[in-house]
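Hi R.,

As promised on Friday, here is the backbone we talked about, encoded as structure tokens. Could you run it through your design pipeline when you get a chance and send me back a sequence?
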């Protein structure tokens, strides 16, 4: 059973570097009441939406890594990480 759902996949523009380039997407995942977002993904497949990936995105948002944000709900309310 998969706990993580793909909520949306949006166009996020074009990325180019010395090594790669292409169109990117912004993916929003949901697990229970919690939401995690990653902006600027070059390659996305829905099979990647796992608990481990969700936890990784939340951890990156908590340390303000560029391109990640998360809305985490607990008994005290909802907290936004990243932006």
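Update: got your reply. Pasting your designed sequence below so it's all in one thread:
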């Amino acid at each position: 059973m998969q706990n993580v759902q793909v909520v949306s996949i949006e166009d996020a523009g074009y990325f180019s570097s010395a090594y790669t380039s292409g169109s990117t997407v912004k993916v929003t995942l949901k697990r229970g009441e919690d939401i995690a977002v990653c902006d600027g993904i070059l390659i996305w497949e829905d099979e990647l939406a796992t608990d481990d990936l969700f936890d990784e995105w939340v951890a990156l948002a908590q340390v303000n890594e560029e391109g990640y944000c998360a809305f985490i709900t607990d008994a005290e309310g909802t907290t936004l990480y990243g932006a």
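One thing I noticed while checking it: The chain has one domain: 5-82.

Thanks again,
M.
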